[in-house]
Amino acid sequence: MTLLENIREALRSIGGNLLRTVLTGLIVSIGLIALVGILTAIDAMRHSLNDTFASLGANAFEIKAKGYGNRFRRGGVQDKQYPALSFLQASLYKKELTRREPSAVVGVSAQVSGATEIKAGSLKTNPNMQVVAGDENYLRIQNYALAQGRTFAPAELQTGAKVALIGQEIKDKLFPGQPALGQYLYALGQRFQVVGQLEKSGSTMGGSGADRLLLVPLEAGNQLPRTGALTYDVKSALPAASGLSFLESQATGVMRAVRGDRLGQEDSFEIQSPESLSGTLDSLTGKVQFGGALVATLALLGASIALMNIMLVSVTERTREIGIRKALGATARQIRLQFLIEAIVICVLGGSLGILLGIAAGNGVASLAGSTSFLVPWLWVGVGLTICVAVGLVAGSYPAGKAAALDPIESLRYE
After folding, report:
1. What's the rounded Cα separation, in Å, for the pair 315 and 402?
2. Which end of the chain is more exposed for a tag (fewer CB within 10 A), N or C?
3. Per the UniProt record, which residue ranges are transmembrane (predicted)?
4. Is residue 199 within 8 Å of residue 63, measured between CB atoms?
């Protein structure tokens, strides 16, 4: 029998025991749903996060206080925490670094409030708007663009004027069907005049980009009411990524001097770049992938045991058929190949369904986390199909060998 004839015979046998075959295939499907679904979700979220990291700019890095706000413990020992960057430290760093490297761009900002309700007349937004105070480089350093209006004037930055740039969602909520420029709004008990509107950015990984952003001058943000001291974010960039490593070394020296880190003492801050964030992400997702693969492996192990049991039952039920085939000239190799192909076909049919459902489930989970892209992980599709064939070979080997070893005379006398 040719390979095609064996496949047809396997499909005929499967059709004769359809319910049993479907139940066995579903077991294989569950294992593949777990494997492909988990890995697809991880790849989709990682793809979206990499896009977010790329928006930071390949030629930029951010400086944060080491361990600040980090409550996680590693090995039972809590990481040492250092004080957050102050406004004075951020200002001194910006002044000194741009003096040493005139081509560098340094942006200083602070999140004043992350859950704010903004009002204008009788209209108001949901209480989930961000109020951020930024300097003249904030838009450039964050890769935000103006759709209308202008950015802050130097005098407004120096005096802390009550002016603001707003995102698309704020504009749609407060000024529907009319221009927002020149209008007034209220946030955190203060009145601001809208001088610019940011381009729509959409959502990424649960965030809203610039759409829910109310940007005010840095000095104005320092004067707004708040429950605690502001935490300042410092981001540095170059026109080209080629000199970024040198700028990082320069930034390290400047920030150590600004923070007063003594000789021999570790840095009280850390530099985060897209490469370092991506490396951390790869490390975390690698562990999650290992866990997902382990769960899927256990499910597939159960599927292989169930399939082997089904194939043994099939061999017993078809003992007389095997005897007839041998009497007509079928060799032990042909019998073995027939049952192996039948096991592989069952696995491939069930696995194909599991792969399709896994891709859909993985992208669904990723979309709940904020991912906007639909990812088809061809690598994991190939791995899944390979696993199907491997499970079929492993689970079908013993039943196929048992069928091939049957004595034709005894088989003909069966039943």
Report:
1. 8
2. C
3. 21-42, 290-316, 337-362, 374-395
4. no
